[in-house]
Amino acid sequence: MSIIDYNHMEGEFMELIKIIKALSHQNRIRILNLINQQDLCVCELEYIMNVKQSNASRHLTKLKEAEIIYGKRKAQWVYYQINVKLLDEHKFLKEIIENELQNIELIKRDNEKLNKYLNSEMSCADLT
């Protein structure tokens, strides 16, 4: 194996470690579950998860650094969404988000609150 091959493998390995570390907190897992269903801004995540804005922002930053999510600005809000390309590259991540999480009670409650929010007349403007 050449040094070029080794460095390439090390880069992929480090990317995987970064992803796994990003999954190491309950709130980041909850965020992934929610934005896998709907693009959401930080104020919506704060409302649905019942966390402070600083807490949600800190976890969003970790997920962005691992390139699991990214944000798109719409007016004054940034809406976060899953990096589908990354999910396609790392099937285990897709399996966790789409299947494994759905059996966890806290995730079920988050999903219920998300559905209530989506069916309400509320918007980001109402939450800020």
Outline of this structure?
By secondary structure, the chain is mostly helical.
Proper CATH architecture: Orthogonal Bundle
> What is the structural class?
mainly alpha
Q: Could you tell me the number of beta strands? A: 3
Cα-atom Rg, whole angstroms? Answer: 16 Å
Write a structural description.
A 3-stranded antiparallel beta sheet has the order 1-3-2. Helix content is 67%, strand content 11%. It has a single domain, classed as Winged helix-like DNA-binding domain superfamily/Winged helix DNA-binding domain (Arc Repressor Mutant, subunit A), CATH 1.10.10. It has 128 residues and is mainly alpha-helical. The protein is globular, with a radius of gyration of 16 Å. A hairpin with a 2-residue loop joins strand 2 and strand 3. The chain contains 8 helices and 3 strands. Helix 3 packs across helix 4 (53-65).
SSE order and pairing:
Layout lengths: L2 H20 L3 H12 L2 E2 H8 L3 H13 L3 E6 L2 E6 L1 H6 L1 H8 L6 H15 L4 H4 L1
Antiparallel strand pairs: 1-3, 2-3
Helix pairs in contact: 3-4
Could you name the key traits of this structure?
128 residues; mainly alpha; Arc Repressor Mutant, subunit A; three-stranded antiparallel beta sheet; globular
